[in-house]
Each structure stands twice: as C-alpha cells, then as structure tokens.
C-alpha cells in the first residue's frame, strides 16, 4: 500500500489522528514542566487542499472540510477545540492549506517545549523547514524516523510524546513498527507513544495488534475508526491509533469523540469505531 499524504491531507484519517493528538498534548501541557514532541515521519508540514493532487482526490471535503462549521454537541466541540485551532478551522477565513502533525504540534505547544521533527525525503524536509519557519523550539532532521527514534529516546525532558506515522509504502511496515515501539518503550517506559496505521490489510493489522499485546508495554490502548466497511472499500476506509501510556482521561474523551466523528464522517455502510485495551495494568 502506498499512502502518499499529499493526496489525503485533511481526510477522515487526519481528523481522527490529529484530534486525538491534540487531546494528548493538551493533557501533557497541564503540567508546567517542559516536554518533548518527537515526530518520526513528519512529512512536508503543510498541504494544499484546493489545488493539484489534493484537489483531484477531494478527500479534504469528506474529512476536515465536512466538520468545519458543522453543528455538534458543546461537549464534543470543547474536546475538538485544540485541533480546530491548530488546524485553522476555528475561524471563518477561507483555507488553502491543511497543517500536518508537526505544524499542529508547533501551534499547540508552549515556549518551554521542544520539537524534534524527522523527515527522510530531502525535498519534503526542505518543505517542512519552510512550513515551520524560524522557531528555536524546533529541530528538523533529514533522517530515517526509526533511526531517530532509537537515538533520541528518552529525551532530556523525560516527559513527552512520540508520534510514529509511517507512509506504509514498504512490505513489513507493521513488523517494523511493532519492533520500534517495543524497543522505544523499553528505553523510555514512561513516555507516551502514538502510532498511526491504515486498516487496509486486516490480517496484517490483526498480527500487529497481537504482537503488541504480547509485548512488554503494559498500557496499550487501541482506537480504530472506519468510515465504511474496509473489506468492501476501494480506497482507504479506516485507520487506527495505538497509544502507549495514554493519559488517564483519554479513554473517556476518545469514546465521546469517536461517537461524534464516526457518523459525521461516514461515507458508506459499515462505519464503526472501536476502543480496546491490548494490555492494561
């Protein structure tokens, strides 16, 4: 499976991923102590939503564009507020760009926090630098994200979040991701780790979750959202997030968010969400 993000910026999977990312960062910022955000597959940072590849696929309109200005319960809007601000959806001005996870994290984090952003593709790394601009909190590395993960955890701050969002362009990505999570957790068992994955090859997804359940990490939460039945879909119809050491409030918040987002973003039969603990203390 080749998941090039330029085609999918702002789609349902981005809404799912970024809304939960914003909730976790919001929780971590309740403490004054600085934190570290490490993004292993940062991408280009900003993506056009009304031109080129994104315009041809139109996935923005079925994701973030569908939620902009949509009526929803006050409680759900409050939970989505950090993501709405970070993505530029809180205002009424027309949008031409949708921010990826590194830019959203940059917009959410505080002056005392630090960001390490890794992007292997040289052209995308340059675009990421332009998107980030001059920011002393941020370090951009043109290197393999898995290598960076091994090198930079635990961070000096001892608090923080790692986001692993691979493109899933190579076979064996699920195995590599599971091994990377296990190794990183072993080095930093108090860190928060988030890993995104597509729900396309359901057998591979099942094996991935089984490997994590048998691994050493003790608090592993699995969240999944399908906008239609994956087995019947031609294009990507579902994705998941693995969250190791999730904030204690996240289970309740995730249930509330997914109960709103899934029907709002549904595009066919079989739309559903799931929340499971793979391991739990």
Topology, element by element:
Elements: H1 12-28, E1 36-39, E2 46-48, H2 52-57, H3 64-67, H4 74-87, E3 97-99, H5 101-108, E4 114-118, H6 122-132, E5 138-141, H7 145-152, E6 160-164, H8 173-187, E7 192-198, H9 202-213, E8 220-226, E9 238-244, H10 250-265, E10 272-279
Parallel strand pairs: 1-4, 1-6, 4-5, 6-7
Antiparallel strand pairs: 2-3, 7-9, 8-9, 8-10
Distance between the termini: 34 Å
What is the H level of CATH, i.e. the homologous superfamily?
Vaccinia Virus protein VP39
Strand neighbour order, sheet with most strands: 5-4-1-6-7-9-8-10
- Tell me what the CATH architecture is: 3-Layer(aba) Sandwich
Low-confidence stretches: none
Q: Mean of residue pLDDT?
A: 92
**CATH T-level topology:** Rossmann fold
Count of folded domains:
1
Which percent range describes the beta-strand content? 15-25%
Describe the model:
This protein has a single domain, classed as Rossmann fold (3-Layer(aba) Sandwich). Helix 4 (74-87) crosses helix 10 (250-265). The protein is an alpha/beta fold and 281 residues long. The strands form two sheets. It has an eight-stranded mixed β-sheet with strand order 5-4-1-6-7-9-8-10, with helices on both faces. A two-stranded antiparallel ribbon has the order 2-3. 40% of the residues lie in helices and 19% in strands.
């Amino acid at each position: 499976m080749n998941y090039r993000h330029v085609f999918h910026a702002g789609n349902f999977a981005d809404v799912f991923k970024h809304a939960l990312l914003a909730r976790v960062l919001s929780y971590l910022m309740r403490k004054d102590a600085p934190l570290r955000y490490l993004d292993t597959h940062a991408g280009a940072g900003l993506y056009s939503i009304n031109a080129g590849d994104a315009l041809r696929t139109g996935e923005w309109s079925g994701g973030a564009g569908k939620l902009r200005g949509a009526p929803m319960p006050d409680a759900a809007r409050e939970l989505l507020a950090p993501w709405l601000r970070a993505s530029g959806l809180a205002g009424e001005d027309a949008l031409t760009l949708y921010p990826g996870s590194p830019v959203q994290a940059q917009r959410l984090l505080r002056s005392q926090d630090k960001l390490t952003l890794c992007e292997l593709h040289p052209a995308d790394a340059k675009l990421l630098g332009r998107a980030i601009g001059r920011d002393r909190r941020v370090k951009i590395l043109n290197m393999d994200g898995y290598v960076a993960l091994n090198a930079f955890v635990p961070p000096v701050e001892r608090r923080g979040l790692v986001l692993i969002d691979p493109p899933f362009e190579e076979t064996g990505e699920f195995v590599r991701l599971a091994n990377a999570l296990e190794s990183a957790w072993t080095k930093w068992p108090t860190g928060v780790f988030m890993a995104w994955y597509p729900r396309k090859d359901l057998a591979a997804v099942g094996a991935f979750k089984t490997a994590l359940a048998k691994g050493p990490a003790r608090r592993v939460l699995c969240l999944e959202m399908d906008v239609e039945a994956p087995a019947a879909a031609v294009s990507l119809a579902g994705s998941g997030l693995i969250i190791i050491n999730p904030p204690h409030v996240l289970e309740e918040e995730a249930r509330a968010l997914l109960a709103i987002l899934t029907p709002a973003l549904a595009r066919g039969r079989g739309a559903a969400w799931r929340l499971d603990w793979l391991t739990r203390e």
